[in-house]
């Protein structure tokens, strides 16, 4: 696809993807033209003729801007828009020496052995179906394509056939793509900078997606990762996962309040039983990864990116709204099921086929 991922998954066939993408491309072209007009009216420079310029500034916050964000940022502008609306430029000005200093500390051996081992273990498990993350079989990996190239060029599905097996993450360490090397440095720098978190599973997917959409810019990806974990997901990736547990408890409370049919189906906690009175429904376990990975691996990639568009503009309430939207879209199927484990399986699998990003956002 335009981001280098395989079109087909276990839940979406290539033909299903192509059928959806044909109409979605028309939608993207229309939205891009509207964004260019909007940027022009706001006095923000956009090269209308070549249409390759990536803005560094975006319109001020307003109802109109929020509406445009919810309808999707042009794919090649995404990383820049995320960085702008998340407060990245100001953070970078205040901490201009932070990332280079952390890289020097990595080179000086300041990374803990435990964090280093865990990062290496997960590096090649990160997006093994993405052409820019899997190890290249040639001695000279291809250069990172520009954001414009990612949008314009279609990558043939056969190019993805040779994928590093997740069961052997240490294979081919001597032939790494540029983004794998960047991912290692960003995760190592984050582990040193945030010792209360260090390295936690799912951080590799957050950092990798940031690198992909920021066209390999390590420093900006690092700062956005810090913003995500401290502002949007406080405590979620800590050692105790306290923040994640709180988020899930809040989600279950909202589910009970707003979607009673779904709540009745998923609530397998027996009332009056003191041993289960404080336990959350079994289905809550399926939602842990929703918050920790911000829906990466839960929703198809374009839907994830649309969610991130809104997250960086509107904040963490977006996560709860999207989680409720998933349950709402699955309501009919879930309400028909009585077995808790079958409900669990439905909640795990149904979101992976929610290819229609517009429907999820609406």
TrEMBL record:
Gene3D superfamilies assigned to the protein according to its UniProt record, in alphabetical order: putative rabgap domain of human tbc1 domain family member 14 like domains, Ypt/Rab-GAP domain of gyp1p, domain 3
Domain Rab-GAP TBC intervals: 72-315
InterPro entries per UniProt: Rab-GAP-TBC_dom (IPR000195), Rab-GAP_TBC_sf (IPR035969), Rab_GAP_TBC_domain (IPR050302)
A Gene Ontology molecular function term of the record: GTPase activator activity
Residue ranges of the region described as Disordered: 131-163
Protein name, UniProt field: RabGAP/TBC
Organism: Viridothelium virens (Speckled blister lichen)
């Amino acid at each position: 696809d335009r981001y280098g991922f395989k079109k087909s998954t276990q839940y979406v066939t290539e033909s299903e993807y192509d059928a959806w993408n044909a109409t979605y491309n028309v939608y993207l072209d229309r939205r891009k033209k509207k964004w260019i007009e909007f940027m022009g009216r706001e006095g923000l420079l956009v090269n209308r003729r070549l249409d390759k310029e990536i803005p560094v500034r975006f319109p001020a916050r307003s109802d109109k801007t929020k509406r445009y964000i919810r309808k999707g940022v042009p794919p090649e502008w995404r990383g820049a828009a995320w960085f702008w609306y998340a407060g990245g430029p100001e953070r970078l000005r205040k901490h201009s020496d932070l990332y280079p200093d952390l890289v020097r500390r990595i080179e000086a051996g300041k990374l803990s052995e435990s964090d280093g081992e865990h990062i290496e273990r997960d590096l090649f498990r990160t997006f093994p179906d993405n052409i820019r993350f899997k190890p290249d079989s040639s001695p000279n990996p291809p250069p990172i394509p520009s954001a414009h190239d990612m949008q314009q060029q279609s990558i043939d599905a056969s190019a993805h056939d040779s994928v590093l097996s997740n069961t052997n993450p240490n294979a081919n360490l001597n032939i790494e793509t540029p983004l794998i090397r960047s991912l290692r440095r960003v995760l190592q720098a984050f582990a040193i900078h945030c010792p209360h978190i260090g390295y936690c599973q799912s951080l590799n997917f957050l950092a990798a997606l940031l690198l992909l959409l920021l066209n390999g810019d390590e420093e900006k990806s690092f700062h956005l990762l810090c913003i995500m974990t401290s502002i949007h997901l406080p405590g979620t990736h800590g050692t105790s996962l306290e923040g994640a547990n709180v988020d899930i408890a809040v989600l279950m409370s909202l589910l009970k309040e707003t979607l009673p049919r779904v709540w009745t189906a998923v609530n397998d906690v027996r009332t009056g039983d003191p041993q289960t009175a404080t336990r959350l429904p079994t289905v809550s376990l399926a939602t842990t990864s929703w918050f920790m990975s911000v829906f990466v691996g839960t929703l198809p990639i374009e839907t994830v990116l649309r969610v991130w568009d809104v997250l960086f503009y509107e904040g963490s309430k977006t996560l709860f709204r999207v989680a409720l939207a998933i349950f709402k879209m699955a309501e009919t199927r879930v309400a028909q099921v009585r077995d808790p484990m079958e409900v669990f399986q439905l909640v795990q699998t149904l979101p992976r086929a929610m290819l229609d990003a517009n429907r999820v956002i609406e």
